[in-house]
Amino acid sequence: MALALASASEKKEIVIIGGGIIGCTSAYFLTRHPAYDPSKHNITLLEASKIAGGASGKAGGLLALWAYPTNIVPLSYRLHAELAKEHGGEHRWGYRRIHCGQLSAKGRLNHSSTAKDKDGKPVKGDSVSLNKRDEKALGKVVAAGIPKDLNWFASESVRSYSEMGDPDTTAQVHPYHFTTAMAELATEKGVGVILGSVSGIDTANGEGVRSVTYEDKETKEIHTIPATDVIISAGPWTQRVYPPAPISGMRAHSVTITPSKPISAYAIFTEISLPPNFGQKDTFLKSKRPHGKTVTPEIYARPNNEAYACGEGDHLVPLPKTTEDVETDMARCQDIIDYVSSISDELRDGEVTARQACYLPNVAAASGGPLIGQTGVKGLLLAAGHTCWGIQNGPGTGKLISELVFDGRAKSASIGSLDPRKVL
Fold it and tell me: I need a labelling partner for 194 at 20 to 30 A (CA). Which of 25, 112, 286, 374 fits?
């Protein structure tokens, strides 16, 4: 108790490395900790490219009480709801409760809609969606166990549906809007944001952190700032900043689509059986591509008539220097578009608004991830390796980091199993 009080009363130079969801929520909760005093505690957020430039801006944004790890999920899920209530998250970053399920379906060969208007011009998306609502189609949907309001999948494609989560256990946010909002709310309380790439952390030969050195993004000048506490939250780039960290990156592609008509609030994990010779000529490869027999894209309906869809990860391209250097494989994005179009006319006939890629952080250790806590060097903390659940577990991690800095220990959750010292 005395140690915690002494720690909170000391003058602190806190440096957060990484402007993704973990860095931004850490900044937010540090400024909301009861011990935070802007006259004594200076907080700097260092980001190499831009806030939410990586996975934190391009992820799906699914929140779930059934996520992992179980020791921080309930805390973080609750904090999401509290943050949304306090800061108008429903409108500011698209927070809402949703249904989530597993959909088994048979893909169709993709053909554009043949419907035309009175002038002979193509009309998007009205041919099959009408068929969905006829008696025969409705019977197929009911037999497959599809909820009545999940009406944006082709009736001839669906095979079965099983619920994974309901609005009591599942929600969503728009990752980019949520992460940038956390950064904005932190800066309002005194956090300084610097765009620059970290080149070194002075730990006085392991005795304790002293400073952080970085290269300014615009001027390319080298600067060194004092530090008493350093939080490394650089996602898949964490090992570049702190080589002992067993964290690697996996590339993931995704697309966003404006459906041809509004779709209901569901997050869907699909299992799609593709027909033989599936694939179409597209503007990127101009040839048919080979596909697996079964593919598993995820599809998240978002507010404001947007759908997010992502595919499987790959390790084909090494982690680049920054998020701005991430290489997007347009053929992989087209695969995702083709897959979801094969089972939904609303998505097939919609407008693709983004094709993108990012890297997800993975912990290369038997314990899995994330890693949250002390590193063994005084004042040096690690908060990284959140895999695909970074958005879900961001608030909980940020809260715990604020406690580790100001109280000297995690108080809101038991995180011994996530201790970085077990794998460093």
Answer: 374
From residue 71, alpha-carbon distances to 159, 405, 417, 418 in Å are: 35, 20, 9, 9
One-letter amino acid for residue 126 of the chain: D
Backbone φ, ψ for residue 362 (5° rounding): -125, 145
- Band of pLDDT at residue 264, cut at 50, 70 and 90: very high
**Residue 231 three-state SS:** strand
Show the DSSP H helices in 88-234 as ranges: 89-92, 127-132, 135-143, 175-188
Q: Identify the residue whose tokens are 């979801």.
A: 340
Q: Which of 420, 421, 422 is nearest to 397 (CA)?
A: 420
Q: 363 or 131: whose pLDDT is higher?
A: 363
How far apart are the C-alpha atoms of 250 and 358, rounded to whole Å? 8
Distances (CA, A) of 176 to 53, 58, 331: 8, 7, 24
**Exposed, middle or buried, 280 (CB in 10 Å: 0-12/13-18/19+)?**
middle
In this predicted structure, what is the pLDDT of residue 283? 46
pLDDT of res. 115? 33
Q: Is the pLDDT of residue 47 over 90?
A: yes
The Cα–Cα gap between 188 and 178 comes to 15
Enter the DSSP assignment of 325. G
Max Cα-Cα span within the chain: 80
pTM of the entire predicted model: 0.91
Query: Hey, is 422 helix, strand or coil?
Result: helix
pLDDT at 8: 60
Given pLDDT bands bounded at 50, 70 and 90, which one contains residue 110?
confident
**Three-state secondary structure string covering 31-67:** HHCCCCCCCCEEEEEEECCCCCCCHHHHCCCEEECCC
What is the C-alpha separation between 35 and 293, in angstroms, rounded?
56
* C-beta atoms surrounding 251 within 10 Å: 22
How many other CB atoms sit within 10 Å of the CB of residue 396? 26
Task: Determine contact, residues 304/94, Cβ cutoff 8 Å.
Answer: yes
Closest CA to 391 of 122, 173, 75, 66: 173
Q: Are 246 and 423 in contact (CB under 8 A)?
A: yes
What pLDDT score does 3 carry? 47
pLDDT exceeds 90 at position 308: yes
Digit-coded pLDDT (tens) for 392-404: 999 999 999 999 9
Q: What tokens were used for 355?
A: 């094709």
Q: Cα angle vertex 292, ends 286, 295, to 5°? A: 105
Whole-angstrom CA distances from 223 to 66, 197, 314 are: 43, 10, 36
